[in-house]
């Protein structure tokens, strides 16, 4: 059974709508931040921080793992929400990385995050 986490846009969010292209830009931004951190540390941190290849389909983004510790994460967009899906074959590494990405997305959007374990985190001013 697949696990899902959802970032909802609320009236207090900084974004009004979300598209697949915006999600891809956020993933690239996350990768660039990791790369800059690696440059400061003189270490290839980007490879460890984002061990995925980005594959864009017409209705979703697939993050396909580059090594055995990572399998795949799916990113889908629905109305005013972004959903991260861990397929049945997902590893613990995938779940940890998906949690990091969800928190990053929610912070950038100032949204409401429903985590994989059912808990809710609020990234907007209430």
From TrEMBL:
Pfam families: DUF1885. InterPro entries: DUF1885, Rbstp2229-like_sf. Gene3D superfamilies: Rbstp2229 like protein (3.30.310.120), Rbstp2229 protein (1.20.5.850). Signal peptide: none annotated. This is DUF1885 domain-containing protein. It comes from Anoxybacillus ayderensis.
